[in-house]
Amino acid sequence: MSTRAAAGSGRPAAAGSPGTGSAAAGSAEAAGTALAAGSAGTVETRFLDLPGPVRLDSGRDLHPVRVAYETYGTLSPRRDNVVLVCHALSGDAHAAGVSATAASTRDGFGAEDRDGAAGRNLGWWDGMIGPGKAFDTDRWFVVSTNLLGGCRGTTGPASPDPATGQPYGPDFPVLTVADLVRTQRAFLDELGVARLAAVAGGSLGGMQALEWAVRYPDQVGAVVAIASTHALHPQGVAWNAIAREAILRDPAWQGGRYYGTGRAPDGGMGVARMVGHVTYLSGPALAAKFGRRLQFADDVRYTLTEPEFAVESYLRHQAASFVRRFDANTYLTLSRALTYFDLAREHGGGSLTQALAGVRARTLLIAFDSDWLYPPAGSRELDAALRELGKPVDLHVLDTPYGHDSFLLDEARQTPIIRQFLEAQ
Amino acid sequence: MSTRAAAGSGRPAAAGSPGTGSAAAGSAEAAGTALAAGSAGTVETRFLDLPGPVRLDSGRDLHPVRVAYETYGTLSPRRDNVVLVCHALSGDAHAAGVSATAASTRDGFGAEDRDGAAGRNLGWWDGMIGPGKAFDTDRWFVVSTNLLGGCRGTTGPASPDPATGQPYGPDFPVLTVADLVRTQRAFLDELGVARLAAVAGGSLGGMQALEWAVRYPDQVGAVVAIASTHALHPQGVAWNAIAREAILRDPAWQGGRYYGTGRAPDGGMGVARMVGHVTYLSGPALAAKFGRRLQFADDVRYTLTEPEFAVESYLRHQAASFVRRFDANTYLTLSRALTYFDLAREHGGGSLTQALAGVRARTLLIAFDSDWLYPPAGSRELDAALRELGKPVDLHVLDTPYGHDSFLLDEARQTPIIRQFLEAQ
Fold first, then answer.
1. Is A107 within 8 Å of chain B by CB?
2. Could you tell me which residues come within 8 angstroms of residue A140 by beta carbon, excluding any fewer than 6 positions away?
3. Is any Cβ of chain A less than 8 angstroms from the Cβ of B239?
4. Would you say B62 and B155 are in contact if contact means Cβ atoms under 8 Å apart?
5. What residues bind substrate, as annotated (chains A, B) (predicted)?
6. Which residues of A touch B245 (CB under 8 A)?
7. CA dihedral A171, A176, A182, A184 (to 10 degrees)
8. Is B320 in CB contact (< 8 Å) with chain A?
9. Best exposed site among A116, A238, B150, B245 by fewest CB in 10 Å?
């Protein structure tokens, strides 16, 4: 087990202690924060070093690998109540509760407005994970890891390459969703968890859940894939390509070797985030929030360089906030992984039905009709293929207004569906 | 009249000679090009220097102003058959026929595939302008100008600032659609054209047509506004803001003073074009053309920097092609102008109906159901407001697959509608 701290984590390695959870209930008041009923409490991100290498789709073996994680709830004596939640492109291990340390990644559209989440360091799925919530921590032991390739404690491009002692940068391997899942599998081995009661996530997180069900059919009881798909559609491939181009074309990217140079591709990263942000929202949501409202007074100021419309100012704010907390090479790595993902190509010789033939988990699919980045069509194709195979599957298409971000924002609609699905276990 | 050639035009000033047109029928074979029946022939872009300044919305007077233009057909003795066609964000004066000099701007989606337009230097609306076409040059004298702020012969940010002798760069005034139209008005004065039989355009071109009808109600007989709107919707404002951010954040932009430095913001411009390109297409069109087809063989190569999917390679090609022919400061200027455009705010105290109250032209609106950048909703709002006022208006929403680019690509569907509308004059 490596004892070298992952770059950027600034925390010592700590072996996992399965069964305790990292939520320290009752310490909320001590932290000076008034928690709502149902909070997972004050939590800390912990770290675990895998004992062996992770074998990747590209053929490389990656070692050492550290995994940042949080847990919520209590592991049952039979270790049969584990729910793995998988984060999306810009998330991290801090999925629920109030972090004693980490800055929140819950800065999606609307989140700040609703509850000042950023200031309280709430987990990115805090509305879904906690006592009495969709993923009820009174019943389930919920595990959340930062993805391989991440920049929030798990080994990624900013971590030191053992061959050089310097950050990997562009020498970090190119990853697939399968690689992310293999890493989670190896991590859970260390926690002594052989089987997942459920694996859940939205967007890229849902892709991981689906990959789990296909790759480890005997080790997954149920899949919850929200606002996700078996393969990103071509326009989504294009948007992700454009976001990556914005980073690659920023001279400060320096071929990926920007660590320690005092310069980072913040300009390109900001543009990437703006593109992402608009694709995560629905057009009507953007119209309702900003319309064509001018930034200052009631007329334009005739400037090319300063925001004239409120939406321009909002996008700049989002970009600046994202650049402060996220690493560009991680963005490139995870964006590439999610565009590669293609269950039919990878597991079915081009046939989605064939790819899913071995699935033994029950599957819950939730899609949002205003989501044009991961539109309901992808979930419908999964639903049809599973039904054709006689597998148990539920599909819910919800008419929320928030677009793709609905999986982060509309807990109220998702909660009863997920609770009922998990209780039927 | 200034005798200084506009930067980048490389051509001497030439006063307009109304009545002759610039199409030289019969010279096509001499140019070694086999023309389809109905071609406007071989044409040359010409240049006219306005005698006085153009007063702009920002309060500035711009002088000198040179206008690049082409004409097709013959001006009638009563000068009552003039149709002004207005180009969109990335167009120029070369709207029809085969240019003896200019590189084609007709590099939109599909255009190259269909007829090798780029190689033949066809005008960007060649399918619509010519003998027997939608804008029938046997009947109409069609005039096309490069917009103020342009980079294809008309005075723009790359032109010399008379105060310094150096290119304006960021000192070029910030423009509105009204400023573009005022310049066209002053240009037509020099041609001796007091009244337009019709003014037509798609996208930003349609905005100009609408502005003409509102600003000069007694001088416009008919308006043809295609794939356009009275005010870009908020998501469109966001996309344009992101495209501009990509340019502004490119260090090679150098605050707009990149002329003569040997560096231009090609990286940012490329990203801007990619964003534009995806918004000009429909998702289904992109899926039909590329799907998730891999660029090489049948598997991925595990690279972050090279294209893996065919659509990535296509976007890079589009970006490289655009950067060669277009100026970044012009992009900024015209992108800003089209996002400012808001008929209700500028002319109606917030009311579209009030803004249109003085219109005397007949109006033809064409929209495309696959166009999500200028969706039919904008045309429907114009249609409803004009009907409420008792003005003559026709609205056609066509079910073409190409998205916003349909106004450039689907001439077959538009032609009978436009011909019939103009003949009813």
1. no
2. A73, A81, A82, A83, A197, A198, A422
3. yes
4. yes
5. 273, 405
6. 270-271, 274, 315-316, 319
7. 90
8. no
9. A116
> Which amino acid does the sequence have at B313?
S
Q: From the list A244, A303, A315, which residue is nearest B174 (CB)?
A: A303
pLDDT band at A104, cuts 50/70/90? low
B177 close contact with A: CB closer than 8 A:
no
CA–CA–CA angle B173, B176, B177 (5° rounding): 140
Report ipTM for this prediction: 0.90
Residue type, B52: G
List, in sequence order, every beta strand (DSSP E) within B134-256: 135-136, 141-145, 198-202, 222-226
Mutation site for B-interface testing, chosen from A302, A333, A339, A347 by largest number of B Cβ within 10 Å: A302
Distance from CA of A339 to the nearest CA of B (A): 9
A203 carries an active-site annotation: yes
The strand order across the sheet containing A42-43 reads A23-24, A42-43, A98-99
Task: Render pLDDT for A127-157 as a digit per residue (tens, 0 to 9).
Answer: 999 999 999 999 999 999 999 999 999 999 9
- Whether residue A304 and residue B271 make contact (CB cut-off 8 A), yes or no, is no
Which residues partner with B144 through β-bridges?
B70, B85
Chain B contact set for A302 (CB, 8 A): 57-58, 173-174
Kindly state the tokens that stand for A226.
């929200």
The encoded tokens of residue A344 equal 């039919």
Q: Is the Cβ pair B332, A287 closer than 8 Å?
A: no
Query: Is B23-232+348-423 assigned to CATH 3.40.50.1820?
Result: yes
Confidence check: pLDDT of B34 > 60: no
Amino acid at B121: N
CA distance B240 to B340: 11
Q: Using alpha carbons, select from B14, B3, B151 the residue that is nearest to residue B71.
A: B14
Q: pLDDT per residue over A106-115, tens digit each?
A: 544 333 333 3
The domain defined by A23-232+349-423 folds into Rossmann fold (3.40.50)
CATH class of A236-335: mainly alpha
The dihedral through the CA atoms of A130, A135, A138, A142 has a sign that is negative
**What is the total residue count of chain A?**
425
Structure tokens at A374: 């991961």
Residue extents of the structural domains in chain A: 23-232+349-423, 236-335
pLDDT tens digits for B53-78? 999 999 999 999 999 999 999 999 99
Q: Which residue is closest to B308 within chain A, CA to CA?
A: A340
B327: helix, strand or coil: coil
Take residue A244 and report the two structure tokens written for it.
């990556």
Q: Residues A218, A219, A224, A225: what is their CA dihedral angle, to the nearest 10 degrees? A: -80
Give the CA count within 13 Å in the CB-facing half-sphere of B61. 7
Q: How far is A317 from chain B (nearest CA, A)?
A: 13
Region for A424 from its dihedrals, namely left if φ exceeds 0, alpha if ψ lies in -120 to 50, beta otherwise: alpha
C-alpha angle A327/A375/A203, rounded to 5°?
30
* Pairwise CB contact (< 8 Å): B267 & A244: no
Residue with tokens 């995870």: A334
